[in-house]
Amino acid sequence: MTYYLSMSWWQGSATANEVTMLRRRVRLLEEQVAALAAFTGIDPHHLPREVDPVSREARQLVEEGKFIAAIKVHRQQHGLDLVTAKRDIDAVRAQVARH
């Protein structure tokens, strides 16, 4: 089964329905991976886990309040455009603010 998204998703304005659809799809894929792991006898703890896209260096800059420097480092490390890098750093800022 294939899902297609409108180009608005890639331009940063996903609708609530698109986000809901993607969450359901991810949940289904995760269940399928778990079932395949169980079927093949693979310990699910040995499967790759989500990796933080923001490096320790960029995260440290955020914790020091150096947000622009963090965005710059993050862009250079991953070859990202400004908008994507800023979103990632803003997510880290929100995490830091909660703690």
What does this protein look like?
By secondary structure, this protein is an all-alpha fold. The protein has two domains: 7-46, no CATH class; 56-98. It has five helices and no strands. The protein has helices spanning 7-10, 16-40, 56-63, 67-78, 82-98. Helix 3 runs antiparallel to helix 4 (67-78) and helix 3 packs across helix 5 (82-98). The chain is extended and about 45 Å long. The chain starts with 6 loop residues before the first helix and ends with a helix.
Uncertain residue ranges = 1-10
Overall geometry comes to: extended
Q: Assess the beta-strand content as a share of residues.
A: under 5%
Please bin the fraction of helical residues.
Answer: 55-70%
Mean pLDDT: 85
Q: H/E series, N to C?
A: HHHHH
Kindly, what is the distance between the CA atoms of the first and last residues, rounded to a whole number of angstroms?
40 Å
Question: How large is the count of helical segments?
Answer: 5
Protein name: Ribosomal protein L7/L12 C-terminal domain-containing protein
Provide a concise account of the structure shown.
67% of the residues lie in helices and 0% in strands.
Write the layout of secondary structure elements.
Elements: H1 7-10, H2 16-40, H3 56-63, H4 67-78, H5 82-98
Helix pairs in contact: 3-4, 3-5, 4-5
Summary keywords:
99 residues, mainly alpha, 2 domains, 5 helices, 0% strand, disordered N terminus
